[in-house]
Specification:
With 739 residues, the chain is an alpha/beta fold. It has 5 domains: 105 residues, no CATH class; 164 residues, P-loop containing nucleotide triphosphate hydrolases (Rossmann fold); 188 residues, 3-Layer(aba) Sandwich (Rossmann fold), CATH 3.40.50.300; 156 residues, no CATH class; 57 residues. The chain is built from 36 helices and 19 strands. α19 links the parallel β13 and β14. α2 runs parallel beside α4 and α12 packs across α13. The model has no long low-confidence stretch (mean pLDDT 93).
Length: 739
């Protein structure tokens, strides 16, 4: 090994010692920083990342020596992560007294500063230049890279008529919408659209939507043209869940339409070559972690064995709940705790809260939850102790309020499922991985890497810590993200019908032609089947044949009123269950079809408050009933049932026309709208889709009946603030986030 190799090896050993002991001697810092300066000039990603790790760990140790500060400053300039300088100034006041920008340093930084004043890192600069050159870019980069920062700059410095920003979760959608709303340069040029009820012109729009909403928007506005789009968490086109189909289809439609795109996600080594070739796109992969991650694995330690986290020493306990309580009670910085199930998230949050007898917080969020949901909900008691839990069945506005409270420091421990470990930015310095599974499956190496990536936030932390309580797979990147429409040689029938015939080859093309022939023989139009996206085709045909063979049902179900009669709705739902429900929904132990029919009728015909809906759930404990009520709304009322009922309507009317020669015998639109939004009033739908809580909508509804979209609502409230006079100050604050 040469001199340089020996020096790097010695530096690596010192870095390991620093991680363990939290400080070293000034002579060791000097040696490490001198080595780092050379590493940071390297084009090798591993060497560059080691240089960043040295900067971050020495900055975290806060040495108070003038010469070390100057060396640290020199390394920061060499790293081209200039914002480290401001971060360390905030961490150590004496640092600012010792160092300053020289003429050369200022010149170098100016090269990485855009005309908007945004200072880019080395890798961000390369990425931004690549986008300007190629215009169609697929990017894999760590969670702390700042990929979304580039989105704003592309929009501001571009000249696009219509833009689509596609996001996987409501939490990430809300975060992005609020961020764009604060950006004056974006607000001046674009109308921000995050609901289907907003009015928009031919140009000057940014659509901030989930893939499902974007797909519906394109269906309802076939003339709409998008000339730039970005899709976050792009790996989800290959995820093992039912949403991957709509992610893939949305990407397919937009990539066929838009001139430019920017697809982003963490930790994958390559992207579909066929997709890149057909769209003339370029793939770029970055690996440097500008927020370094330290792993502390206690899963393999023997009981009573000591371990250190920062400056604190702990003893490994046999009970992981005790380990969790001990760690979260002493570790510095805010902590995100990952768990694999909703009920265990709530249980562990309660256990942590019970041990914090010296904390008693009172705020508007706590009072609001007490009054609108239930004062005995365990989330209330947790929030009083500075603890919260977060999962997909919690109302979206509460999810947003919890994340805001966490990022503002009102909550310092947040327990969550994967809802917060897949794209949402938080202020968490620490991640504790309590469970090693997700949705009943063991966490993959990619899941582990993605969760780990949420530890630490750039501009707030140099180091993020990850503590694992259970044995986990070694973290790894995904290999190649495949785009099924182009890569899969044996597409499912449901995929084949959605792909343009010109994009199908070999067996897929043969299967498409065979399917067209069979449908023609069975006297079923191809467009009818294609229209019912992501409903299994054999299930659709099963329902058509069932209705054809039981024509007496057609008259039983036919209705012309707003909603079907109760017995008709029961018959419709039972028929959907037998013929259209997917396997997961058919086998859902939490909601048998009988219970689902009962609750759906109650919701549609009685219009219960959330409190009344909670009371009608089975379960002895209030937490169980609340979790069940919210799961019913988010999974069935807002997602699954509208999908099945939409398909049922089209298939029923098709057969009815065959038998009786009458078009559009039934309309389930009002029923579907009621399930999705809890109302059929246009102004209430607009508010609900924007994210406004039901309790606030009910208070201001009467003053907005003449507004049929969110744009008119915004204008009326701005011109006539008395519309919101019945709201508390806190409710007005919530309303202002969405309207």
């Amino acid at each position: 090994m040469n001199v340089y190799g020996n020096r790097v090896l010695s530096t690596t050993k010192m870095l390991a010692e620093l991680k363990q002991n939290t400080f070293l001697s000034n002579s060791q810092y000097k040696f490490m920083l001198e080595t780092a300066h050379t590493l940071l000039a390297s084009e090798d990603d591993d060497e560059y990342n080691l240089g960043l790790s040295i900067i971050c760990h020495i900055a975290e140790a806060k040495p108070d020596d003038r010469f070390i500060h100057q060396l640290l400053f020199d390394c920061i300039i060499e790293s081209r992560v200039f914002l480290y300088h401001e971060m360390f100034k905030n961490l150590n006041e004496s640092y600012a007294e010792y160092v300053g920008h020289g003429l050369l340093d200022s010149f170098v930084q100016s090269f990485y500063t855009l005309n908007t004043g945004t200072v880019l890192t080395r890798d961000q600069k390369m990425l931004f230049e690549d986008f300007k050159k190629y215009r169609r870019l697929v990017v894999s980069a760590p969670t702390s890279f700042g990929k979304s920062r580039i989105v704003s700059e592309i929009i501001i410095q571009g000249d696009y008529n219509n833009i689509a920003v596609i996001l996987p979760t409501i939490a990430l959608l809300n975060e992005t919408y609020l961020s764009f709303r604060k950006n004056v340069l974006i607000q001046e040029r674009y109308n921000l659209i995050n609901t289907s009820t907003q009015e928009f012109g031919d140009t000057g729009n940014i659509f901030i939507l989930t893939p499902e909403k974007m797909d519906l928007l394109l269906d309802s506005h076939p003339q709409l043209r998008i000339d730039f789009f970005t899709m976050d968490e792009i790996y989800k086109i290959q995820d093992d869940d039912e949403r991957r189909h709509v992610f893939t289809h949305c990407l397919y439609r937009l990539s066929k339409m838009a001139g430019d795109f920017y697809l982003i996600g963490p930790y994958f080594k390559n992207f579909s070559k066929v997709f890149l070739d057909r769209t003339n796109a370029v793939f770029r992969r970055y690996t440097a972690e500008i927020v370094q991650k330290d792993m502390i694995d206690i899963s393999s330690l023997e009981n009573k064995k000591e371990f250190k986290i920062s400056r604190h020493t702990f003893k490994k306990m046999a009970d992981d709940d005790k380990n969790l309580i001990n760690i979260t009670s002493l570790i510095d910085g805010q902590t995100l705790v990952y768990l694999g199930r909703k009920d265990t998230v709530e249980t562990r949050a309660k256990k942590i809260a019970e041990k914090r007898s010296d904390i008693a917080i009172h705020n508007d969020l706590i009072d609001y939850i007490k009054s609108t949901i239930d004062e005995n909900w365990s989330l209330v008691n947790c929030l009083i102790k500075g603890v919260a839990f977060h999962h997909s069945s919690i109302p979206k506005y509460i999810q947003t309020e919890i994340v805001d409270a966490f990022n503002n420091g009102d909550i310092d421990i947040l327990l969550c499922t994967s809802t917060l470990t897949e794209g949402v930015n938080t202020s968490a310095k620490n991640i504790v991985i309590y469970d090693n599974h997700k949705g009943g499956k063991i966490l993959s190496g990619f899941d582990v890497k993605n969760i780990k990536g949420r530890a630490g936030r750039f501009l707030a932390h140099f180091i993020g810590r990850v503590v694992t309580l259970q044995p986990i797979n070694e973290e790894e990147e995904k290999q190649t993200i495949e785009f099924s429409y182009y890569d899969n040689t044996s597409l499912t029938p449901e995929e084949i019908v959605q792909v343009e015939k010109s994009d199908l080859y070999n067996e897929n093309l043969k299967n498409r032609e065979k399917m067209e022939q069979l449908l023609s023989q069975w006297n079923i139009t191809f467009e009818l089947i294609k229209k019912n996206k992501f409903i299994a085709i054999h299930n659709q045909i099963s329902l058509i044949n069932y209705l054809r063979n039981n024509t007496n049902l057609l008259k039983k179900i036919e209705f012309s009123t707003q909603y079907p009669k109760k017995e008709q709705l029961e018959l419709i739902l039972d028929t959907c269950y037998l013929h259209l429900f997917n396997e997961r929904d058919q086998n859902d132990r939490n909601f048998s079809i009988g219970n689902l029919i009962r609750l759906t009728k109650f919701y549609v015909y009685q219009s219960p408050s959330i409190k009344e809906l909670i009371q009608n759930q089975s379960g002895k404990k209030i937490d169980t009933r609340i979790r069940s009520a919210f799961a019913l709304i988010t999974r069935y009322f807002e997602f699954s049932l509208p999908k099945y009922l939409t398909a049922f309507e089209s298939l029923f009317n098709y057969v009815y026309l065959e038998v009786h020669g009458v078009k559009d015998a039934i309309s389930l639109k009002a029923l579907i709208t009621k399930l999705e939004f809890g109302s059929n009033e246009k102004h209430e739908i607009a508010l609900k889709e924007a994210g406004v809580p039901t309790g606030i909508i009910s208070k201001i509804s009467s003053g907005l009946v003449d507004c049929d979209n969110i744009t008119k609502i915004k204008v009326k409230i701005a011109l006539n603030p008395s519309v919101t006079s019945s709201l508390s100050n806190y409710e007005k604050l919530i309303l202002s986030k969405y309207v």
